[in-house]
Amino acid sequence: MKKEIRKKMLELRSKIPQDLKIRKDEKIALNFINFLKERHVKSVLLYASFGSEVDTWRIFEYCKKLSIKTAFPKVKEKFLEIYWVKERSELAKGYKSILEPCNAQKAQIDDIEVIAVPGLAFDKNCFRIGYGGGFYDRLLSKKKGLAAGLAYEEQVLDQLPLESHDIKVDLIITDERVINCG
Known about the structure:
alpha/beta, Rossmann fold, eight-stranded mixed β-sheet, three-stranded mixed β-sheet, NagB/RpiA_transferase-like, metal ion binding, ATP-binding
């Protein structure tokens, strides 16, 4: 079931016209930044967006301007390690050609106030389906801060099939709304 949802949502996301995707990315970035500002967040974990994912580079630039400490994940075996990143030049192609920190200072999950979480599908109860590696489920099981799924409105479904290891996010930020499950 999850495999079919992954395939369908990846297709759906990749069919969003580029000009519309840019507008949606801008709305999501602004909603996310407003969320950070309202809570006076000082540290965030972003993912290095690739392909048709919600763009995080605009968010990274905002965070730099607002002096919000920003970390990015790096795949280490079956886990995500996190590192503080000040400039995009501190990232290099890593796991599956996704940009990862290189020569950066290691961060601890306890130091992160808000985690931006990618996904292929989310539901109204804040559960998510990622790419199937379980990296974010393992990371979220150790978090102290809030986890915010970033998604296009098209990626939000009524309900997803769940497994015992699935961990939900605290909220989902889309181009149209914020779904709070905290």
